[in-house]
Amino acid sequence: MKGKFIGMEISKTNNIIKRSFRKSDVKQSLYEATGKNGWIIGYLAEHKDQEIFQRDIENTFSMRRSTVSNMIKLMEKKGYVIRQPVSGDARLKRLVLTEKSLEAHSRMIEEISRNEEQMKKDISEKDLQTFFNVLEKVQHNLEGGI
After folding, report:
1. With 80 as the cut, is the pLDDT of residue 136 above it?
2. How far apart are CA 98 and CA 109, in angstroms?
3. Is the CATH number of domain 6-144 3.40.50.300?
4. Is 78 helix (H, G, I), strand (E, B) or coil?
5. CB under 8 Å to 100, separation ≥6 — which residues?
6. Cα–Cα distance between 119 and 136 in angstroms, integer?
7. pTM
8. d(CA 138, CA 13)
């Protein structure tokens, strides 16, 4: 097959985004909250008025249970989250952000906004909508095979 490959282009784009973030001032001050930890912190911050559990993270980010479990343990160790028991079921523990993670989230949001604006530069709203529609279809197609 000649031409471009979707997976390769997504991978290249992801690498460029990571490099851009690594160079940022925010990244230098938040070296512990890297990669998906940052996305998890963001998700928890956006849903701070709800009870969020490990399974919610697994479902939202399409990640395996063991992966999320290890990530949350490490985030606890670094002081970004705590697990709080839920009344009525001692087995369930909701994830709660610490003050440290809320401060990190605020700085990350500023950097993400700058990166998003840079990525959207010179792309029309129509083209962005097409991009997101195609990406959603790719994700759907791949999830059907898992």
Report:
1. yes
2. 16
3. no
4. coil
5. 79, 80
6. 18
7. 0.61
8. 15
3-state helix, strand, coil in the chain (%, to 5): 65, 10, 25
**DSSP, residue by residue, 26-68:** HHHHTTTS-HHHHHHHHHHHHTTTS---HHHHHHHHT--HHHH
Task: Provide the pLDDT for residue 32.
Answer: 54
Reported for 9-18, long-range contacts at CB under 8 A and 24+ positions apart, including other chains, are: 17/115, 17/119
User: Partners of 81 in the beta sheet?
Assistant: 97
Q: Would you kindly state where each structural domain of the chain is located, as residue ranges? A: 6-144
Question: Average pLDDT of 80-89?
Answer: 90
Burial of 88 (0-12, 13-18, 19+ CB in 10 A): exposed
